[in-house]
Amino acid sequence: MAARTLATVCSLAVVLLGCAATSAQPLVPLPHDKQIRVYVGVWDRFYSPYHRTKRYLQLTANVAAYHPVEQPRVQTFDERRILTLQVPDEGGWAHFYADEDTIKLVFRVEDRRNRLGKLRLMAFGKGLLVGELSADRSGSRIAGSLRYDSDQQYYLAYLFSKRGEVLAKLLIDRGWWDAVVPLVISREFLPYRPAPPSDEGIRKVVGAEDFPGEDGEWMQLNPPPRFAPYPSGALTSTLLVKEFTNDNSRPVPVESPAHAGMFKRWNLLNIRILGSPKIREEWLERYVQSQMDEMRQSAQVKEPMLEPVKVAPYTQGFAYWHVWLRGIAKAVLWLPEERSGRGKDINPLLNGIQQRLHTERDWLSEASARIANRLLQDKSLQLKTGLKPGDVLPGENVYTVHTDAVAGYRADNLKQTFRLRACAQYPDGSREPLEATVVVLRQHAWTEVAPPWGPEPVKYLVGKEGSDIALGKGWVYELWIEGHPERKSTIQVPSETPEIWVVQYRDTKPSAQGSAH
């Protein structure tokens, strides 16, 4: 019982407060009938998304007055305006929402000629009756309030005389305090990337020794990636390396270490805000949405980020992918419609945001709104923009990553080891091991794609027991004993033959020559 009594007292106090505020508002005469003066207000409890608090506000509504025979139209509203809404001067209270699904319109009408009969309120454009307020017995005054759907923007009030004649028509715009002007802001950021290899030798071989950026995962979100030092032109990069051995006679592809789902472009962050604030101008809403959707679609390219590297036959080494990443962020800021009048210059605020973004570690809309509200503490900037601290709110964010890459490989030719032997061969078919210098020349590749090759010895000193030599796979070699090119041995590598023989023909054996003397 005590709780119910307290609630009743509080409600009564709120109503009395609203009535007192209404009576304090000045009444304005109708242009076509100076004897009738009117006031229309919007009174309710509102919620500020910036302050995250609720409070009761009494706002003068926007009102346009029309002669009884005129047809009220939104297009002529400004030229027939007699009352103008003013939001609170306090920052963060130019954009707010009705706390409930309805709002209360407060009316006060006075007629010095005592003709008033009633006020009838309609939902403009719908033909729906909201309610009626009757005049006092003398016909000099109408006072009261009516509630209706908070989504209804325009209302039409008819002032009737005691005899039922229309005295005036009032087109009421309850105000655009729940509407915003969207502002798109862009900035490049520095995407995370896997750490490049620490091996300086690999970096030098590839020709890339500097890799700007912050170590992390490809699609890492937390903490939010840093903004580029300048609005555009910054990249991060990394180097991916994968070792391989191709002991085949054909080229083979080497897949990248990145997982298969990686594409050249992707949406790192794609936030749509459900129930976003109302935007007064439909064309502006469509334009901003198209900007954000175009950004999203630009990243929906299903082309693999890294193609396999095709490596030559009979090679061993590493494939590499030098990857560059460019991060592009686009966000929407919401400015209050009620403070975004003509003749205001928003560019100084945007410039200030861009100059300071690199100092923030947050998403673009949140960081930009925070910087803007901090900058708006400057009175001169308030005068230029018409905004107050707390008037700028963060909207949706879209972050996309665009990549490019240069791929290649570094490899050595795989070798096969043979036992090289030199011998003398006599007419009777017998052979004798020799110590000799053997010339070994690579002739041509027998594979369709030539393996890589490096410098190799041209001459080998071979003892009577033979010597081991390593020859590149995929090549054809010719070998002969120095000074005796008339008898060459040819071998295609790899070969199943473990030994290579080179022969010098002699007419007589050394022992036979000694017995003749």
Task: Give a written overview of the molecule.
The protein contains seven helices and 28 strands. It starts with a helix and ends with a helix. It is rod-shaped. Strand 11 and strand 12 form a beta hairpin. Helix content is 16%, strand content 42%. The N terminus and C terminus are likely disordered. Strands 1, 2, 3, 6, 7 and 10 form a six-stranded antiparallel β-sheet that branches. A six-stranded antiparallel β-sheet has the order 5-4-12-11-8-9, with no helix packed on it. Strands 13, 14, 16, 17, 19 and 20 form a six-stranded mixed β-sheet that branches. It is α+β, with helices and mostly antiparallel strands and 517 residues long. The chain folds into three domains: 163 residues, no CATH class; 229 residues, no CATH class; 103 residues, Immunoglobulin-like (Sandwich), CATH 2.60.40. The longest helix has 23 residues.
* Overall SS class: alpha+beta
Q: How much is the average pLDDT? A: 90
Overall tally of domains: 3
What is the percentage of strand-forming residues? 35-45%
Q: How would you describe the shape?
A: rod-shaped
Residue share in helices? 10-25%
Report how far the terminal alpha carbons are from each other.
146 Å
Could you tell me the number of beta strands?
28
Q: Radius of gyration from the CA trace?
A: 44 Å
Largest sheet: 6 strands, antiparallel
Residue windows where pLDDT falls under 50 for at least 5 positions? 1-23, 513-517
- Total helical elements: 7
